[in-house]
Amino acid sequence: MRVVSGIKPTGNLHLGNYLGAVKQWVAMQDEIQAQGGETMYFIADLHGLTEWITPAELTANTIEMTATLVAAGIDPERSILFNQTRVPAHSELAWLLNNVARVGWLNRMTQFKDKAGKNREGASVGLYDYPVLMAADVLLYNATHVPVGEDQKQHLELARDIATKFNQDYETELFTLPAPLISKAAPRIMSLRDASAKMSKSNPSAQSVVKLIDTDSEIADKFRKAKTDPEALPDTWDALAERPEARNLVTIFAALADRTPEDVVTEFAGQGFGQFKPALADLAVAKLGPIRDEMVRLLDDRGAIDAILARGAEKARDLAAPVLATAQRAMGLLA
Q1: CA 323 to CA 159: how far, in whole Å?
Q2: Residue-wise over 241-270: b if at least 16 C-beta within 10 A, else e?
Q3: Which long-range CB contacts under 8 A does 253-259 form with residues at least 24 apart?
Q4: Fewest CB atoms within 10 A around its CB: which of 10, 46, 210, 303?
Q5: Structure pTM?
Q6: Three-state SS for 2?
Q7: Hey, which residues are catalytic here?
Q8: Mean residue pLDDT across the chain
């Protein structure tokens, strides 16, 4: 069992990024390896080029994302951790697969339509074609399983279609058809000032977003000042259906504590937010503080980050080379 997953390098990571993706990866590392499997995680810096970003920002974001993953619990000695650019076989296989994938398949990809919006003619070819690179990302390592959310299921199906067509066209069994790995549903974390909007670094209110780089006092202050309603917490989770701010804070508490929202509501039933928010603030500081401290340490040692990515890329290249060479021979590119 080999699980492969990538994440685009974004800067100013916040609580929503951590609970929605990074924490999930750490749990997956432990669960898959307990089953005797292997985990590979990569920083998708090539995918980061599909929408304009300055070179300096992309470099900084790649370093920050690597530091965050390691600080949060991804162990480079247990998982293979690298960035795409250091493994040129990703780009090389993507070009080969471009000649197998069909335009009609790509035209059905809904994410391109969503991201390009009304300006499809002005979108980059990379934005249109990136699902083929995503296919290469996992087929290159013969991944048996790929973690997917609702928005990525279509891309995994495309990877399976490409693998099937390649194997049939070139009369080979080179590519494994990756299966979806449905992990525990990631919590949807909303703004601390407006629970109708997702937590986002683009929000103009600094109080709405808990950044992973925030100090303990900043984390606590943001939770203590989070928008709530005047009612006490009920004794059932369902009773919070029409109370979005309260529901958001309970969701965050449950995700940080590895508990169910129902369990958290039961514990705090009848208590007001004057009691609940300080408890949430203390929990957030206890969970996020050590991650921030390790991030800061790693970000102060660029050499350590480079070494981690270099070691991971070397392992990834060793796995990728025979697959790429076999694909090239199958297509007549190598004797």
Answers
A1: 16
A2: eebebbbbbbbbbbbbeeeebeebbeebee
A3: 253/279, 253/280, 253/283, 254/187, 255/19, 255/23, 255/187, 255/189, 256/19, 256/280, 256/283, 256/284, 256/287, 257/283
A4: 303
A5: 0.90
A6: strand
A7: 115, 198, 201
A8: 94
